[in-house]
Amino acid sequence: MSESTDLHGLTGAHRKAVAEELWHAWQVERRAAAVITGVSGIGKTDRLVRPLVARARARGGLALHVEVPQAALSTDEELKSLVIQELRDCADEQLVSVCEQRSTFAEVAREVFRRGGLLVVDEFQRLLEPGSALPIAAWRNVFGRLGTRVADEGCLWLVSNREVSADWTEPFHQAFLTAPASVDEQIQMVLDALGTTDPDGQFPVARRIEVARRLGGNPRALRLLGNLLRTHVLDDMLGPAQATPEGPVDPALVAALERQLVRRAAEGLTPKASVLLEALTVLPDPAPWGLIAAVAGSDSAGLSEELQSRYLLGAKGSRYDIHPAVRETLGPKLRAQEVAFREAHLRAGRWHARALGLALNRSTRDADIALRLSGARFHLLQANAPDELNTSLLPLQEYIVSTFGWSARTPTSTYERDGVISLLEAFLIKPGPAAVEFTYAKLLRARDLPGDAALALPHAQRSMQDQDFSHPWVLWIKLVRSVEGSEAAVVAAQTAVKKVAPEKNLFSVYQFLGACLANLGRPAQAVGILVAGAAIAKGSEQRLAEQAIFCAASTGDLQLLQKVREDISQCGNFVLQVALADVIVLEQKGLWAQAAALAAGLRVEYPHYIHLCNHEVVSHLGAANPEAAQNAMAKYPNTFRAEARSGIQWLISMVATQCNDYATAAKHYSIYTDGTTAPATLNGVQAALLREWDHRIGTTGEANPGLVAPILPKALTGLEQDMCRPQFGPPVLPQHHASTHSVTQSKSNALSVLAIATEWQSGRGGLSTLNRNLCLAFVRQGARVVCVVEPGSGPSINEEGVTVFAPISTPGQEPHEALTRRPELPAGFTPDIIIGHGRVTGPAASVLATDHFPQARRLHFVHMAPDEIEWLKGGREDDAGQRAEERTRIELELARNAARVVTIGPRLQGRFLRDLDAEGLPSPVRLDPGFDRQSGVPRQPPLGQPWAVLTMGRMEDANIKGLDIAAQAMGKVVRKARVAQNLELIVRGAPKGSGDETREQILEWAAAPGLEVLVRPYTVDPTRLEADLRRASLLLMPSRAEGFGLVGLEAIIAGTPVLISEESGLGQLLKEILSKEQAARHVVPITRDVAVDAESWANAIEAALMDRESTFKRAEELAMTLSEQRTWSSAIAGLIAELELPLNAKA
What's the pTM? Predict the structure, then answer.
């Protein structure tokens, strides 16, 4: 028998070649794993994997095929259960018995591999991180270890319709399935499915090429068409003949045609079959026949045969599933029928509940329990039947306590976490076991949606009753702080210290209590509490003593520091900490050389105490001896982990700046900032490091710069004195405050800046806004600034110290051409810096610098990346690729003779760092716009109805701005109807005269009659824009590509809640500054798959609107954090430092 003859159902040369390569990799090369990728519908499962699984079984081998479940409570438990069910179907009871004793999916998989089995894990994309090609961290480790295990005769295949990281899968065999390349092959797929004696009559030859190309060669759509042609006429399904498409077909069009085919197939069904087909859309995964029958009710066999005959329902081994397009097409129709939707879910949920009871009667270790529990939870909650779910859970108390109690596994994904939350919510309708109450409260806090902390608080209170270990108490204290504030958390923690046993992590209660007091600006009280805790706690009490030392040192109060040293020395247990305090006391006195010598001597006796190591290095820096600091660092007892936000990485980078070692400084700065590209000069790196020390807020578990160096030496800052900054306090370095230099500098020697812009106000969007803020920021830092604008854009004025000059226009001359003429400048003003913006005013700035002010340094500011955005602009007659290259080339040529390129935010810096390096040009300087606020008055949710959700920007580029994503997401929110209020989507920025057309398009995208849509024209009127932000309950910025996103910045400053695209500079900046959990509240992924993105954004919008009060509170916290972390004064200070040009330019 040849290798290919037993691959039934597998056609096409490419597909057969991929199949044989997979088989060879397993059977001959003994590869441990393979990854199979290809777009949805390409035939990976039905036309590649299943024939190979069938071959393996026909040859007497063990081959199992499971899918990652969609609505799992525990993906690990449910994958394990699915594998065991497959083994049952294969009648391998001996292996079933072995696997039921194993605890995890990985252990079960290894049993399969030991027997030479093939294990296929399909729908693997469900385990990828949102917007990433990497698996979720926990699964990255599980499958990484399985894929690199010691060779055996088994094999793991992962099947995904999304790309999987090539770096992660490097040890795996790689298989990529493409659509049939040959039109003949595509046509043959239709004919094979048609299987008729009259193919020419039902699939006319004249239309075959056109139809195959319109369907994009998608095997699933082609097979569906072939099956339907048995009973339908081609023109009825796809309409009359059209022009044959040339080139690639938009996948969205193919998906739309596939949904159209499904609708046509469903039209001819009997009424009962039609009802059943709609009902089956509630099942998220392939289902056993019993579940299909339960949803169908009577005559399930006859009705299912009718659906299978039309390719709408298919068998997958022992399970059944509807065609994927059925769920997309008919699912919304069923959701709109409240009674039918609820009834379908009730039938499914009750079937799972009955099966759950049977499984529990067999054994609490029965593999079916996890699957049935997940199914009952999902369907009964969808049916709005929590009481019925609670009843079904009552017999499961022992199982639930053991699974979701004190030692519950951490969910591997947000989907798992949310599923467990919904299950425990139903289980805890009445107060339950303390361990389960704890897990529920812990998961709510981890989810951290608006209102979750308040919901979790009473459950945390119940969990700590009669407990004397720290975990429930610390959780309760943290929730009290979130809901009631730090003062209330202090009271709660003072209660907890009396309840937790000293040997059961009492230190963690004192640690949090000390942090709360420090955050409240009461460091002396915090120090006293920490020292008292150090004397009482048993276990990790040294950490409390260290926290007390660092807290005291950061205040600059020498007496307080010395008191801490005396208090801990009397306890007798803190020899290392006393030694550390002695070093820091010398630092506090400014005796840096003595501190370094003492630390070096103590390290001989205590070589492994990391804090002494750090402070020897810091003290050498304070003594202006960077070489000694570098030598001390070389003697560290351990290698350094490449860990983001680690104070040691910050310290290594700072030492390197003092040793003129740019490569090391840049490397460790990038590690510290989690991959952010370092500034291009040593001065720039040092300025960025100082900004981190001055702005980073202290958090438990993070050894940030202020913890490593609570006293910053004047040798690093150039100031007249050392600086101390409490980690919860505001910035203290003068360069991070406005008007630092204006007090000390005269106009005659101030830096002179000439900015070239099209306008002073913001009539043309973000570029003008940023230029105005930039000019004003330079003035506040003591510079003299002139801004030249186009004739006719506005009058020549003086605004807040900026001289705005509009030249007189010349008849016949274009306005932008006037910018190249030598401007009339104030007396004594000769520019030191000339600023041009992109290809808009960059050419004029270049001419001025070359022809009129050759001594000036020209800065070329980049605001957008043509290579990203030109592809997303629709309705243009010229070629997008050619346009993108031409516009990128203009930017690069303007960069060539500039003193430096300045990019706005992290996204543009990354792209132009690559492009400038390829041209042999210096790296760009990064400038993050400031979040300075005029008023600190917290916003309250707007009064009245409907609640407004706002999106703003120039909507002639609606595709770039993601307007379709916003509209579809809002439609989903309205259809789900979980937000109790009427909603209105306000779109500000429509081109003049396009309001009606834009509104109709939005309504079509949203497909939700209950959504109100208001389209407003683009405006530069600040009064109108501010009113828009004040009336909005939420601002959306779902851009597919955005250089920065000043619209989002302005909303944040205004205190309006925001959801920001991950594919924007602003989104990336938020992810840099905020913790992962904080960033997730405000930054939403964009995958370029509209269906996926609309669902993600809908979930985020819904979460924000379901508790507006909490959402606005978080918006205020975000604005406060960013106003401290990123100011215009620190932006200008960083820019000047990197340019190595003092503001006192003429001195």
Answer: 0.75
